Amino acid sequence: MKRPPKILHTLLHIRELREERARERLAAALSALEAARRDLEEVRKNQQAIYTELAGRILSGKEVQLYGEGLEGAFHETARLEERLKARLSEVESLKKELEKAHLEKRVAERFKERLWRRYRREEEKTFYRELDDLTLMRRSRR
Question: Any alpha helices (H) in the chain, and if so which ranges?
Answer without folding.
Answer: 7-54, 61-142
